[in-house]
């Protein structure tokens, strides 16, 4: 294995990284640093976040920059403000003992005036998001004509975020002679095309295999019915004491709902999504980094650039719409040489998507069973006993109280005292998981009223289910009784003349399940829960029943929305022209 001292780095940089505790170079550093320092070739490196790539390009860039020349020599482009600030912070810590190199962050979402003034004072290295950098160029506030090195960090993310035009404009403004170094976790076509257009015969570096996930991440999959997702999530979390995780959801609303329910169930969770102000985001991220929050529920976009190294788990509450995003999400764990676990909760119709992800990862998911109530309790008990074992009583803080303790507990045997102390903390798990059902999805399912499972209702109540809770909250407001036995029955008789049958242009081929459809309808029509009759999902379309009055509300609301990128079309069955299926 290479050593930092044999790579040609200056003593000042070596001293700084030693102070940072970097002992051995990571694979991407072993490969990139010598090439960057000693050759003139462009470079394409496939490397995940968390592999140490900032130092891989940052150290040579700092070393090669000539601080005596007052011109911008290095340009680093990255997708988000958070990453931009992180890179500048890293560069500054690497340059702690290196004199004179000025680094500047230029990013969107904060007043441009101040950044313009900073730019006019000059910077050797600019770290920028493409949108704001492009803006600066159009305003002629940045001079890139003497740039010698361009680094594209998380190139695939920049493309995903739609920055292609800005990137092309920026690359067009730097001299052709500039060296370009591109870092990307995946290599989608767009990124390869840009590399082909702007880079000359680049050296290719693979850290891990192409488009594959990091070796330090274990990929696990739990197959559950969609309606059991929340309960399964809680079981997985409860059987993993010490969990420090990001849970990914697809939409802002989902992150909020999930965080809300987790909080209600006494987990330390908060949501992070794109509609929050910068101050709110910073506050949540600060609390998460400080571990005041144990679980961050985030959308893909909001979690970009979030740099936390110690995550034990990434949990995919929903699979991402684009399979490529999976590697980005899971790459948030297993960082800096640590092991991490990426957990996927799927229902059985999502298997195909899972197979696609496996092809990208080039490794299979380990199929896991949702822990039983007994297993959750065992894990919690083991954790509690370990904590008891580690309590330090040596300093005698309790001694003054021992006479009272002895007196009060004198009648109890040692075993009885133990039991009682353990139950103080442990009782809630025993109560919560009493009679908890098996949540692992069987392959058979029914279609009516979104009910997929068998007769497990009665015993499920203690654990609480998010969607059930939602429904009962909302039906209460609507004045309907919330008897668990009655909850999932069709709300009216199918032949009722007031009942409308609707057709929606989504079916099994769009991975739609009855619970998905119910969720779609709920989301499109806020307020009291609408009563649904029979639901029938076919390959290409689905059919559902509801009162005509509700149907008049639901149709326009649903027709304004999309599902998995597809525009939704809902029509009333009686209105359809025979033979003209959409
Ligand atoms: P990056 O991929 O650049 O975001 O780096 C991920 C994390 O790994 C950062 O917190 C770095 O400080 C840390 N890191 C980078 N290189 C090393 C190294 N050689 N040894 C230990 N930690 C490192």
Mind explaining what this structure looks like?
The protein has 582 residues and is of the alpha/beta class. The protein folds into 4 domains: 4-206, Rossmann fold (3-Layer(aba) Sandwich), CATH 3.40.50.300; 219-372, P-loop containing nucleotide triphosphate hydrolases (Rossmann fold); 374-390 and 401-432, no CATH class; 499-573, 2-Layer Sandwich (Alpha-Beta Plaits). It is 40% helix and 15% strand. It contains 22 helices and 20 strands. The protein has a 7-stranded parallel sheet with strand order 3-4-2-5-6-1-7, with helices on both faces. Helix 2 packs parallel to helix 3. The radius of gyration is 28 Å and the shape is globular. Residues 443-461, 467-494 and 575-582 have low confidence and may be disordered. The site of adenosine monophosphate (AMP) has 14 residues, from helix 3.
**Arithmetic mean of pLDDT:** 83
How many domains, as an integer? 4
Estimate what percentage of residues fall within beta strands.
5-15%
Strand order of the largest sheet: 3-4-2-5-6-1-7
Q: How many helices? A: 22
Instruction: Identify the CATH architecture of the largest domain.
Output: 3-Layer(aba) Sandwich
Reading off the top of the CATH hierarchy, the class of the largest domain is best stated as Alpha Beta
Cα-to-Cα separation, first versus last residue? 61 Å
Q: Give start-end ranges of low-pLDDT stretches.
A: 443-461, 467-494, 575-582
Number of strands: 20
SS content category: alpha/beta
Radius of gyration: 28 Å
State the shape: globular
Task: Report the CATH topology name of the largest domain.
Answer: Rossmann fold
CATH H level of the largest domain: which superfamily? P-loop containing nucleotide triphosphate hydrolases
In helices, the fraction of residues equals 40-55%
Bound molecules: adenosine monophosphate
């Amino acid at each position: 294995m290479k050593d930092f001292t044999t790579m040609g780095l200056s003593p000042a940089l070596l001293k700084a990284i030693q102070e940072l505790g970097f002992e051995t170079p990571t694979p991407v550093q072993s490969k990139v640093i010598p090439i960057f320092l000693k050759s003139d070739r462009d470079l394409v490196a496939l490397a995940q976040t968390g592999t140490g790539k900032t130092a891989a390009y940052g150290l040579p860039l700092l070393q090669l920059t000539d601080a005596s020349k007052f011109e911008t020599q290095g340009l680093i482009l990255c997708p988000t403000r958070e990453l931009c600030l992180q890179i500048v912070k890293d560069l500054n810590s690497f340059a702690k003992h290196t004199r004179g190199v000025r680094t500047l962050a230029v990013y969107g979402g904060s007043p441009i005036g101040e950044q313009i003034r900073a730019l006019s004072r000059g910077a050797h290295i600019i770290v920028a998001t493409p949108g704001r950098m492009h803006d600066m160029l159009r305003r002629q506030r940045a001079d890139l004509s003497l740039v010698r090195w361009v680094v594209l960090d998380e190139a695939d993310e920049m493309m995903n975020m739609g920055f292609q035009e800005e990137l092309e404009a920026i690359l067009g403004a730097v001299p052709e002679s500039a060296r370009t170094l591109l870092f990307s976790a995946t290599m989608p076509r767009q990124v390869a095309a840009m590399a082909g257009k702007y880079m000359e015969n680049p050296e290719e570096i693979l850290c891990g295999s192409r488009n594959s996930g990091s070796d330090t991440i274990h990929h696990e999959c739990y197959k559950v019915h969609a309606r059991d997702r929340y309960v399964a999530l809680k079981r997985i979390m409860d059987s993993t004491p010490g969990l420090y995780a990001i849970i990914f959801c697809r939409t802002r609303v989902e992150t909020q709902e999930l965080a809300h329910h987790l909080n209600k169930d006494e987990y330390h969770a908060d949501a992070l999504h794109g509609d929050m102000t910068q101050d709110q985001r910073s506050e949540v991220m600060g609390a998460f980094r400080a571990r005041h929050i144990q679980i961050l529920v985030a959308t893909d976009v909001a979690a970009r650039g979030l740099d936390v190294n110690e995550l034990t788990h990434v949990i995919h509450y929903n699979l991402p719409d684009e399979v490529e995003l999976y590697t980005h999400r899971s790459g948030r764990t297993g960082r800096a040489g640590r092991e991490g676990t990426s957990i996927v909760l799927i229902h059985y119709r999502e298997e195909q998507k899972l197979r696609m992800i496996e092809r990208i990862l080039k490794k299979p998911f380990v199929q896991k069973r949702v822990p039983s109530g007994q297993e959750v309790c065992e894990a919690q008990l083991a954790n509690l006993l370990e904590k008891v074992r580690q309590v330090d009583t040596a300093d005698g803080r309790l001694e003054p109280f021992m006479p009272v303790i002895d007196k009060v507990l004198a009648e109890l045997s040692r075993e009885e005292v133990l039991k009682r102390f353990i139950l103080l903390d442990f009782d809630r798990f025993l109560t919560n998981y009493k009679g908890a059902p098996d949540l692992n999805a069987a392959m058979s399912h029914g279609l009516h009223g979104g009910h997929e499972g068998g007769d497990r209702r009665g015993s499920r109540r203690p654990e609480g289910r998010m969607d059930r809770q939602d429904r009962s909250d909302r039906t209460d407001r609507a004045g309907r009784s919330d008897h668990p036995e009655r909850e999932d029955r069709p709300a009216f008789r199918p032949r009722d003349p007031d009942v409308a049958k609707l057709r929606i242009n989504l079916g099994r081929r769009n991975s739609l399940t009855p619970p998905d459809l119910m969720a779609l309808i709920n989301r499109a029509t806020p307020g009291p829960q609408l009563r649904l009759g029979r639901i029938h999902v076919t390959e290409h379309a689905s059919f559902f029943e509801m009162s005509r009055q509700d149907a008049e509300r639901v149709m326009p609301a649903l027709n304004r929305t999309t599902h998995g990128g597809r525009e939704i079309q809902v029509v009333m069955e009686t209105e359809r022209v025979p033979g003209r299926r959409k």
